[in-house]
Design goal:
By secondary structure, the protein is mainly beta. Helices cover about 10% and strands about 45% of the residues. The strands form three sheets. Strands 1-2-5-4-3-6 form a six-stranded antiparallel barrel. A six-stranded mixed sheet has the order 12-11-10-9-14-13. Strands 7-8 form a two-stranded antiparallel ribbon.
Length: about 180
């Protein structure tokens, strides 16, 4: 059984394309093209299920058409509409830009704060706003957002997959106050 900490989200299948089972795929990480791993993982009914890639072709720098093994009709492909797509962490190579890791590299890392202790696990990186945010699944399965700022990081253990941070006073308190207001 594939566990949540063994994968990280790289995109979503949108809808079938054509009649032969191809799927429109919007992705945030093209790791499936850069490393030797011939499958993607889909979250179906709360279970991570691997599917072998038969072929793919890029449409843009953030979308592709993907053909999965055994999915050979538009009817079979429809079951993948709006399904989240994940990639196994063990095959992901660190993304490096200008000699530094990109934020996506830290997906799956545990976040430990010097004052608060363990906060949770990074499950996604939100780049939809001006400030990049680390999306953390907290210990009580709540979603916590913290700014992705190098100045907050005091240590990185890549072997144990732990990111040690020193968050500004009150940042986590604000996050908790916001979730209580909902």
């Amino acid at each position: 059984m594939i566990k949540k900490e063994e994968v990280y989200k790289i995109g979503m299948f949108n809808k079938p394309h054509g009649i032969h089972g191809e799927l429109s795929f919007t992705f945030t990480d093209d790791v499936f093209d850069r490393v030797e791993c011939d499958y993607l993982i889909c979250l179906l009914d709360g279970i991570f299920v691997p599917f072998f890639i038969e072929s793919y072709r890029f449409r843009s720098d953030s979308s592709a058409l993907v053909k999965l093994d055994g999915i050979d009709s538009s009817e079979k492909a429809r079951m993948f509409t709006n399904v989240d797509v994940y990639f196994p962490v063990k095959y992901a190579e660190p993304e490096v830009e200008d000699g530094n890791f990109t934020w996506n590299f830290f997906i799956g890392f545990e976040v430990d704060d010097e004052k608060y202790g363990t906060i949770g696990t990074i499950v996604d990186v939100d780049t939809t706003t001006i400030n990049t945010l680390l999306v953390i699944e907290g210990l009580e399965e709540e979603e916590i957002l913290i700014p992705a700022q190098e100045s907050f990081i005091v240590g990185v253990d890549t072997d144990e997959r732990v990111l040690v941070v020193n968050l500004p006073e009150g940042l986590l308190d604000m996050e908790n106050a916001e979730s209580e207001d909902c």
